[in-house]
Amino acid sequence: MLIHPLVTDSDTLADLCSRLANSPYVAVDTEFMRENSYWPELCLIQIADSNEAAAIDPKAPGIDMTPLLDLMVNNDEVLKVFHAGGQDLEIVHNLTGKTPFPLFDTQIAAMALGMGEQVGYSNLVESWTGVKLDKGARFTDWARRPLDKRQIDYAIGDVTYLIQIFPRLLDKLKRTGRGAWLDQEMERLGDPANYVNEPDLAWHRVKVPSRRPEVLGRLKALAAWREREAQGKDLPRGRIMKDETLADVASHPPREQKDLAKVRGLSQSWAGNDIGARLMGALEAATNLPDDEMPVREDRKPGLGKDGALVADLLKLLLKIRAKETDVAPRLIARSDDLELLAAGRRDGLSILQGWRYEQFGRDALDLVEGRMGFAVQNGKLKMTRLDEAAE
Q1: Residue 294 carries which DSSP code?
Q2: Catalytic-role residue among 49, 57, 105, 158
Q3: Active site (annotated) includes residue 29
């Protein structure tokens, strides 16, 4: 494989992307910094096909990233392969308003092949190639220039190994009949809605014990205000106001701006400065949260009770059994919330009652909940038994 020098000019990047546009698939990774900013700062993009690989410096003066971004979001002939690509997709979405398509995530594929939950890239590489990666540059400052050879070599490795592993993963998925299982996961991962930071929805991320409409209305207004402040200043939202402080102010709002000096977690200067005034303005403009926006109750398990909780525990046991039998990571099949909702009587909208999850797990889970299946011990091993068959 040809490894190019660091790409720092528009012509070289355009030529590279023109060639890659003829490949059936490319492996992609990014390096970024976000510890001190709201928006992740893109510092490096690595890309490879089976013939060549390159790292691209998006911070290089005058470089036009359009050909690369077009390849990511406007070329649906080339499959884009990522590993644990959620944050990479977020960066592309921030730059284009779109997400890469079509898409393949090797971490999710590894879960479907029983390699565990959230398998790391280095573990994936070692499992499939026997190579132990040097992690020394993992926590480097990618924003600092110039980048040294060790940093670039480390970054390039994230795609040169990935491009080797992907076809082998895909082949095994096809041989085991699990390729179609990933379609739903890739659709979910690639949904642009996942990467939109909408200020008016930011309150959903903040926990507050009250369900009073006036408290939740203030929470919504304050969370939206904080989100806009963070976006405008390009600072982490926690640097503006931490979640627990925001929830406290929503629950116990100050009457006047000067009272902000008494709020734990806020600077006393807010009692008289502009940001404090904007906070008070958000509070004053807040209205009661309307009924149609009220969150579902935290328990989300109507009638679950003690017996229902035991049923949920049995479903979790069934999940372990089925995951072991099929050699699939349990987390890919079902989440605890879905199991608890099924135990509580919910049937509509559960992913475990749809598609391949229903075939592999949901049908038996439903039979267990509705009394058509139970556990039995045979030859010292725990197995599932259909009750109608056991009675014969």
Answers
A1: P
A2: 158
A3: yes
